[in-house]
Design a protein that fits this description.
- There is one protein chain.
- With 128 residues, this protein is α+β, with helices and mostly antiparallel strands.
- The chain has a single domain, classed as Alpha-Beta Plaits (2-Layer Sandwich), CATH 3.30.70.
- Helix content is 27%, strand content 22%.
- The chain contains three helices and four strands, in the order βαββααβ.
- It has a four-stranded antiparallel beta sheet.
- The longest helix is centred in the N-terminal third of the chain and has 16 residues, at 15-30.
Length: 128
């Protein structure tokens, strides 16, 4: 699986219109071969910045299948005029996926010997 990452800087004052257009455009990308999932998140610190995360089965599903399609032309018409500057798109492969074993003081310990977390009351004077 490949993760497409695009930082989208939308022209200030056009955020609502961009979100409405994206609501339409997301049906385009989600219909493409090799598409897995996507998220659009808005930055808290910079209200005109968004991050688009799209999971594809393989890189070519995005770079060739989507980018060279008639559907991409419609995507461009809906969204590209909102960006300033035009976004850089990068692709990532997974190194870690969050499926980790529970914490133990000894990372070599077998799973059946992992220390259980101890609940500490805020009133416990011995808590560190």
């Amino acid at each position: 699986m490949v993760l497409e990452v695009a930082i989208l800087d939308v022209k200030p004052g056009q955020e609502s219109e961009f979100e409405e257009a994206f609501n339409v455009a997301q049906a385009i990308i989600s219909s493409m071969a090799g598409y897995v999932s996507h998220q659009l998140q808005r930055c808290i610190e910079k209200e005109s910045r968004y991050i688009l995360l799209v999971n594809w089965l393989k890189l070519e599903d995005h770079t060739e299948g989507f980018r060279q399609s008639a559907e991409y032309q419609e995507w461009k018409k809906l969204l590209h005029h909102y960006y300033d500057p035009f976004p850089t798109v990068e692709h990532y492969k997974s190194v870690f996926n969050g499926d980790v074993r529970p914490y133990t003081k000894d990372p070599r310990a077998p799973l059946d010997r992992i220390d259980e977390p101890r609940h500490v009351s805020p009133h416990d004077a011995t808590a560190n």
